[in-house]
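Input set for joint prediction.
Command: fold jointly, output tokens.
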Amino acid sequence: MISLWHVMGAAGHLAERELRGVGGRAALADLAGSTSLGGRLEELRGRAVLLAVRDQLTAALALIELDGVASRLVVCPPDLPAEHLPFVMATAAVEAVVGDRTPGLGIVDVECTATLAPLTTPRAATVLTEWILLTSGTTGPPKLVAHTLASLTAPITRGSAPTASAVWSTFYDIRRYGGLQIFLRAMLGWGSMVLSSAAEPTGDFLLRAAADGVTHISGTPSHWRRALMSPSAPKLAPRYVRLSGEIADQAVLDRLRDVYPGAGLGHAFASTEAGVAFEVDDGLAGFPSARIGQPGPVELKVVDGSLRIRSPRTAARYLGAEAPALRDGDGFVDTGDMVERRGDRYYFVGRRDGMINVGGLKVHPEEVEAVINGHPHVRMSRVRTRKSPITGALVIADVVLNGEPPAPGPTRTELERDITERCRAVLARHKVPAAINVVPALPVTAGGKLVRHGA
Amino acid sequence: MSVKAEILSQFEQVAREQKKRLAPLSDDLVLLDSGLDSLCIAIIVARLEDTLGVDPFNVTQEAEFPVTLADFVRLYDEVVALK
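tokens >
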């Protein structure tokens, strides 16, 4: 049985590799003879295990130890609302809980800690572990998405995991698909990894990542826009900068290119359900239209404007009797991400379910944001709907500026007008924001994505 | 600025922004003939909500939709007076 621990060992160099958390570090070689599970690993063999810990370092150790042991590994993100826990446990038929805060939930409760204890029984992988990742909608319980180590690691090729002396990091939590991809790249290559912490301010994380010599780092465009506002951002010297999880517009790509001129710059299209579909490394937004319909392990097609993906990297299914089908009859996952062809490239224009309807005409907030974000004084923006008794809805925009915003007055009005003119030059009339509000900051979810109301 | 003056100013402003030829703003001007389409009117109503603090279309559900500019101004006058 091939387990995560097995492939880490096959990658080699364990003695030189570490997991570095905000409060401590763990040498990978130490896991050969010690455990984070207090000598109770064998009690979890063949069981459906829920992993619910606060600290990322502890979570990382448990993931390594439980793959090949647990029949099912339910990976809870740290911000999972407690009210959804009973639903998650019932849907995944959880038998055991590995945690640091939820005693008495499972048939077996095991405490997990980053302080390692001696391992009494040698590690043995005997079970093909089903990995369950949770995706959260804006409301309601999460969906439980079933992967295997094989589907999770299928996107990681020799070429995509440059190895010697790599130090990986990500703004994501590793218990989300985007973060897990980086963790697995570090574990399958020769790398070490610096783990983020939700409680740590962005500037502090950047300084820690710089001090630890991070070479490969990923985040959502929202993560990066926030990072670029920090005076610590230029202290990083990455060889590779990656964006995923949201649409990477040309403005954020250009700014990253300016701040990290020596780094490879890539944006990946990935989702928990569809896996990593492709990576774009030419520094341009969108992706080459030739990619659609191209034969290969990852097949892409566009149906009614939305991107569909069939590959060995997609999840197998949603758990739960009432859950919808994850793949269509032909095995394609409908991403719900709408694309539009312009010339020889496709561009992401937004989510199908995030559309604003202005008097019967459709607007994707993201296509308007991409235009606004191209303004030299704009750091980031959020386009949202405003109810209108005339057209049902209007488009308005909240905008965060680079640097100090001018006080309300002629300068600010001039800037708002300038942004509006920019939109008017390239967008259809109904897509131009009826109002531009300059705001100090925009809310970002725990998953690193812009908070969208009513999406 | 009076309610009427504010309304007239928004009509002119939005017509300019939207590059619409605005008919002379007389009291008996039929809104459908004003040169403004429903997107323009929607923007005017949103801006008036910000400046006057009222949206008469939300307050009086059963109100008939104003036909002339005078109807439109009267609708706002009434709701502003109630405020």
